[in-house]
C-alpha cells in the first residue's frame, strides 16, 4: 500500500496549524533557546503520514487530534541534524524509537533535556517531576536567590514615603570619547525610554541635558527640571556614527574610536525601572548614590571571589568567525566581557549552587534552565520601548552590540521576562508537556488544548544500536557529524526526517558558543563533546567565508551526509527534508547533493513553517513557506525523456494545482517560486538526465537559474 507521505498530505490544514505554532511554541521547546526550530505541526504531520495509508488522508484532521501512541511502534526514525529535537519529541510521542545526531554540543544538550525527566517511573510521574524540581529550586532560592533579590532593589519616594522596591530592569548607556575634544559622549539613538500606546499613559523619556526623567507623549518635550527643549526621537547616535555633544563633530564609531582602542566601550546606568509589590506600581527613576554604591560594592565582591569567577564564569576568548565578527568589531574579545560585574557575580553564584545538585538528571535540567537564563541576562539585551520589556540577546539570530543595553533582574519579580524564576516556571510547563502532551485546536474560534495523555514520553537513553533494538530503550543521542554513521548498520532505519543545514545560513556553531561556554563549565568533565574550549566550527556543514569554508566544501560535506543516510535506510525508506532558499544556487547545491548521493525526489509539499525574524510579514516579496522534500533511493535508470517545453508546462500546471489546494490569499511571490522549485525537483527526478532542448540535455541547474533569473526576475 502507498503511504500518504508518498502520495498527498493535507498541506492547507498542516500550514494553518503550523502558522499558529510559529507564533506560540509548545512549552517543551521553550526550555531553551535554539535557532531556526521548525514547528511541531510539520514533523507530527510527516511522521503520521509515514504510516497512514493513501486512503486515510480524508481522515487526517481527526487522526491528528487523537492519541497515536502506537503508530510508529517498531519503527526507528533517524534525525541526522536534530537541532532543537522536534523530530525526536514527536517520534517518542508516536511510539517509535529515535536516533538523534548533531555536531553541536548545545543542540545535543538541549534535546537531551527536552526528552529526560527527573524520574522515569510511570507512577505519579507528574507529581514527581514538579516536586523534585521545586525542592531544588527552593534550596537555590534560600542559598543565593534571596541575596540576588536584595541586590536588585532600589529606593523610591511614594507620597513622601521612602520605600524599598524591586528593580525590574537597569538601563545603561555606552560612552565614546570624542577623538577631537576628548569629551566622553553618551550614545543615545533616541531619548525615548518607553513608547507605549496606552490610554492616559504618559511615556518616559530622558532629558539629554540634565539626564532627568521627562514624562510626555509629544514629539518635542520640555524638561521641567532644567527647561531644556528636545526632540525625544532624535539622539546623537545613528547607524555606526555619533555626533559629539561638545564640539559637534561627527564620527564613525568603528573606524574612529573602536579601532584605536582595545577594550569595549564603558557604560553607565541612566535609568532604573522598578516594581512596587505593595501597590503594583511600575515606574522609572534615575540612579541615585545608593544605586551606584550598591553596584560598585559588587565590584569589590568580585575582587575577593577570584576562585568563584574562575570556576563559574567563561574564561574563553571569542573566536574569529562570520557571526562573531559583529562583536569583535566592538572589541569584545572574551565571552565574559558581554556581562557587567553584577551579572557575572550572581550568574556565577547561581551556577555554583546548581553544580551542588547531586542528582545528575536534575542538575542537568537546572543547568539547561540556567543556560537559557543567560540569554536574557547579558549586556547585549535591549529594551523594547513599544512593549515595555527586555528583548533577549537572541531574539533575532545575531550578536549585535547595543548602545543602551538592559540589565535584567536575574532572579526576577512578578513582572518582567527572562529571569531565572520566569524560566523555572516555563521549564515546569515544558516538563509537564512530557506527561500531558497536547495539540492546540481551534473550536468555535477559540484555541483549545487537546490533551493526548497516551502520547506521554520520556527518554530511555542508550549509546548502542543493538540495545536500542533489543532492550527497553527508545532514544540514542550522538554529538557527532552525520558524515560518519558507522555506528549504524546498513539498512537499519525506517525513515530519516530532518531539517538539514541550509546554504548561506546562520553559522549556528558560532552563536551557540555563547551558551556553550557556560554549559561547559559544568559538563566538561562528564561529556567529551564539552571538553574542547570551542564548538567544532570547522566541521559544521555550512559556508563560512571568514573560516575559508567554501560552497564546494558545503556541498561535499552534505553529499557525504546524504550518502551515509542512504546507506542506513531500509529499502524504499524515505529521507524527508524541510528546506528553503532565497537563491537558485542554494537549491542547486541541495539537489546536486541528493542526486550525487543516490537519491531522487518523489514528492514535495509547501508548508507554512518557522516564524523567521525579520522575514515574515505577509508582504508579497517575503518567503513564508518551507519545502518538505520526500526523497528515496534511486533504483533504476530513467529511460524516458521529455522536452523542456513539455517539462515546464507540466511544472506550471502542478504549481497552479498546489496553489489552489493551499488556498492562501497571502501567498507571497517567493512562496510560489518555492512551490515551482519543488515541482522542478519532482519532474526532473522522473526524467533525469533526459530533459532535452532539441538535442541538447538541459540540467537542473539551467532550469532553476532560468526560473530565478527570467521567470521571477530574482538574483541568482
From TrEMBL:
A Pfam family per the record: N6_N4_Mtase
Domain DNA methylase N-4/N-6: 73-105
One GO term (biological process): methylation
Record-linked InterPro entries: DNA_methylase_N4/N6, DNA_methylase_N6_adenine_CS
Keywords: Coiled coil, Methyltransferase, Restriction system, Transferase
Molecular function GO terms recorded: DNA binding; N-methyltransferase activity
The UniProt record lists the keyword Metal-binding: no
Parts forming coiled coils: 123-150
The name this protein goes by in its record: DUF1156 domain-containing protein
Organism annotation: Clostridium thailandense
Amino acid at each position: 500500500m502507498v503511504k500518504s507521505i508518498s502520495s498527498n498530505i493535507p498541506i492547507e490544514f498542516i500550514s494553518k496549524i503550523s502558522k499558529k505554532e510559529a507564533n506560540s511554541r509548545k512549552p517543551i521547546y521553550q526550555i531553551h533557546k535554539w535557532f531556526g526550530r521548525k514547528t511541531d505541526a510539520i514533523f507530527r504531520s510527516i511522521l503520521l503520514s509515514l504510516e497512514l495509508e493513501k486512503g486515510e488522508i480524508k481522515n487526517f484532521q481527526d487522526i491528528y487530534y487523537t492519541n497515536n501512541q502506537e503508530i510508529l511502534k517498531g519503527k526507528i526514525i533517524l534525525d541526522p541534524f536534530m537541532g532543537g529535537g522536534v523530530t525526536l519529541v514527536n517520534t517518542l510521542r508516536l511510539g517509535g524509537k529515535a536516533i538523534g545526531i548533531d555536531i553541536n554540543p548545545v543542540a545535543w544538550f538541549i534535546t537531551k533535556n527536552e526528552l529526560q525527566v527527573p524520574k522515569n517511573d510511570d507512577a505519579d510521574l507528574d507529581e514527581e517531576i514538579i516536586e523534585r524540581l521545586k525542592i531544588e529550586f527552593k534550596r537555590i532560592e534560600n542559598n543565593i536567590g534571596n541575596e540576588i533579590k536584595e541586590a536588585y532593589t532600589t529606593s523610591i519616594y511614594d507620597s513622601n514615603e521612602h520605600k524599598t522596591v524591586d528593580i525590574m530592569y537597569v538601563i545603561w548607556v555606552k560612552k565614546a570619547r570624542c577623538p577631537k575634544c576628548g569629551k566622553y559622549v553618551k550614545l543615545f539613538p533616541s531619548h525615548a525610554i518607553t513608547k507605549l500606546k496606552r490610554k492616559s499613559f504618559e511615556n518616559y523619556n530622558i532629558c539629554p541635558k540634565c539626564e532627568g526623567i521627562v514624562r510626555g507623549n509629544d514629539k518635542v518635550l520640555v524638561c521641567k527640571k532644567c527647561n531644556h527643549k528636545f526632540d525625544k526621537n532624535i539622539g546623537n547616535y545613528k547607524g555606526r556614527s555619533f555626533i559629539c555633544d561638545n564640539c559637534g563633530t561627527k564620527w564613525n564609531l568603528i573606524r574612529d574610536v573602536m579601532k584605536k582602542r582595545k577594550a569595549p566601550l564603558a557604560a553607565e546606568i541612566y535609568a532604573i525601572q522598578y516594581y512596587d509589590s505593595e501597590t503594583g506600581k511600575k515606574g522609572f527613576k534615575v540612579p541615585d548614590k545608593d544605586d551606584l554604591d550598591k553596584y560598585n560594592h559588587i565590584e569589590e565582591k568580585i575582587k575577593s571571589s577570584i576562585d568563584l569567577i574562575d570556576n563559574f564564569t567563561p574564561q574563553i576568548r571569542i573566536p574569529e568567525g562570520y557571526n562573531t565578527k559583529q562583536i569583535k568589531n566592538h572589541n569584545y574579545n572574551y565571552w565574559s566581557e558581554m556581562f557587567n560585574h553584577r551579572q557575572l557575580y550572581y550568574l556565577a553564584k547561581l551556577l555554583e549552587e546548581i553544580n551542588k545538585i547531586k542528582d545528575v538528571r536534575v542538575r542537568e535540567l537546572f543547568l539547561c534552565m540556567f543556560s537559557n537564563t543567560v540569554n536574557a541576562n547579558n549586556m547585549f539585551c535591549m529594551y523594547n520601548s513599544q512593549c515595555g520589556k527586555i528583548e533577549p540577546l537572541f531574539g533575532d539570530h545575531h550578536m549585535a552590540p547595543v548602545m543602551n543595553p538592559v540589565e535584567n533582574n536575574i532572579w526576577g519579580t512578578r513582572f518582567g521576562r527572562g529571569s531565572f524564576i520566569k524560566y523555572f516556571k516555563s521549564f515546569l510547563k515544558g516538563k509537564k508537556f512530557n506527561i500531558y502532551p497536547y495539540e492546540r485546536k481551534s473550536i468555535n474560534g477559540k484555541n483549545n488544548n487537546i490533551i493526548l495523555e497516551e502520547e506521554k514520553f520520556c527518554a530511555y537513553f542508550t549509546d548502542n544500536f543493538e540495545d536500542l533494538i533489543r532492550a527497553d530503550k527508545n532514544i540514542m543521542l550522538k554529538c557527532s557529524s552525520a558524515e560518519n554513521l558507522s555506528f549504524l548498520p546498513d539498512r537499519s532505519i525506517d525513515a530519516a526526517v530532518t531539517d538539514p543545514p541550509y546554504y548561506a545560513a546562520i553559522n549556528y556553531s558560532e552563536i551557540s558558543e555563547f551558551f556553550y561556554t557556560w554549559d561547559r563549565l559544568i559538563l566538561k568533565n562528564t561529556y567529551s563533546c564539552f571538553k574542547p574550549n570551542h564548538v567544532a566550527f570547522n566541521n559544521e556543514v555550512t559556508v563560512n567565508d571568514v573560516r575559508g569554508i567554501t560552497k564546494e566544501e558545503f556541498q561535499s560535506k552534505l553529499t557525504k551526509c546524504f550518502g551515509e543516510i542512504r546507506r542506513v535506510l531500509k529499502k524504499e525508506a524515505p529521507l524527508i527534508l524541510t528546506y528553503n532558499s532565497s537563491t537558485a544556487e542554494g537549491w542547486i547545491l541541495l539537489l546536486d547533493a541528493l542526486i550525487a548521493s543516490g537519491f531522487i525526489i518523489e514528492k514535495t509539499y509547501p508548508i507554512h513553517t518557522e516564524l523567521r525574524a525579520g522575514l515574515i510579514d505577509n508582504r508579497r516579496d517575503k518567503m513564508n513557506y518551507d519545502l518538505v522534500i520526500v526523497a528515496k533511493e534511486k533504483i533504476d535508470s530513467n529511460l524516458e525523456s521529455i522536452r523542456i517545453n513539455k517539462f515546464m508546462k507540466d511544472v506550471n500546471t502542478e504549481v497552479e494545482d498546489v496553489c489552489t489546494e493551499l488556498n492562501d490569499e497571502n501567498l507571497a511571490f517567493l512562496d510560489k517560486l518555492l512551490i515551482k522549485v519543488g515541482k522542478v525537483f519532482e519532474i526532473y527526478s522522473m526524467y533525469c538526465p533526459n530533459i532535452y532542448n532539441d538535442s541538447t540535455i538541459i540540467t537542473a541547474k539551467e532550469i532553476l537559474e532560468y526560473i530565478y533569473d527570467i521567470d521571477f526576475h530574482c538574483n541568482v
